[in-house]
Amino acid sequence: MAEKDKIISEKVKRSGIFNFKEVYQFVYRWFVDEGYDVEEQKYVETVTGDSKDIEIKWVATKKVSDYFKNEVKSEWRILGMVDVEVEREGKKMKANKGSFEVKFSGTLIKDYEGSWEKAPMMKFLRGVYDRYVIEARVKEREGKIIGDVEEILEQVKAFLTIEGMK
Question: What is the mean predicted confidence (pLDDT) over 135-163?
Fold first, then answer.
């Protein structure tokens, strides 16, 4: 079985006006552009009157070598989302209003194919390999995951801020 080390967990939370469809597409495109495969594991919409609550869970993975794989999970919660019309640059546009929260967590997966799990001695050697032989590479990979999570977090914050100001 692969060894998973959770490296970072961050979230962004905003209330106000945003365009859900554009944020959704923006985050998806960011993952794809960075070389991640995105799997939507959950999408639940609950309609109450004229508002919606939405829960989404994505798992984005990226193979970086035959030993390492990056995994970034994102969990979305949109509460009380209603459709609104806003005026931007003299034009009426459709948007959404509500509470928006997305949490990103980054995990480094080592030996994701389970190659070192075939015998107890191999599993022991994997531990030695991780701690002493490729320690610098592990730190480098962890730094890259932290960078990816911080980057998408900042991108989402900036996107929401720009969308809210239009």
Answer: 88
